[in-house]
Specification:
The chain has about 110 residues and is mainly β. The protein has 1 helix and 10 strands; from the N terminus they run αββββββββββ. It binds FE2/S2 (inorganic) cluster.
């Protein structure tokens, strides 16, 4: 593997929000590399998920949030944003993206283009 190959596969930190626009209880829809991603602030913790329900692809940006549980507006499946989904558990898993708060910026870890 060349140095260029390693650079191409390294994750990037992309600024997607300011902390003052994503207060607890708020959400924000962002686009990174053409992908639609929804950010949620749940009790101070920032969660970033793909804006596509793993059941049938409905947008999750307008889903009803009860605590940390997001309800898909299409067919009502529920996803707990505070819990990770174990692959092979038999349940549908959200695609999640790591986020980090640095100063007053929310940075999303995106794959290299
Ligand atoms: S598309 Fe989300 S529950 Fe069916």
């Amino acid at each position: 593997m060349t140095r260029q190959d390693q650079t191409d596969t390294m994750p990037r930190q992309v600024p997607v929000a300011r902390t003052d626009e994503l207060q607890p209880g708020q959400r924000k829809l962002v686009f990174v590399d053409g992908r639609s991603i929804v950010l949620f602030n749940i009790e101070g913790g920032i969660h970033a998920i793909d804006n596509s329900c793993p059941h049938n692809g409905a947008s999750l940006a307008s889903g009803r949030l009860e605590g940390s549980v997001l309800r898909c507006p299409a067919h009502g499946l529920r996803f707990d944003l505070a819990k990770s989904c174990e692959p092979g558990s038999g349940s549908l898993c959200l695609r999640r993206f790591p986020v980090q708060v640095v100063g007053d910026s929310v940075l999303l870890q995106a794959e290299s283009a």
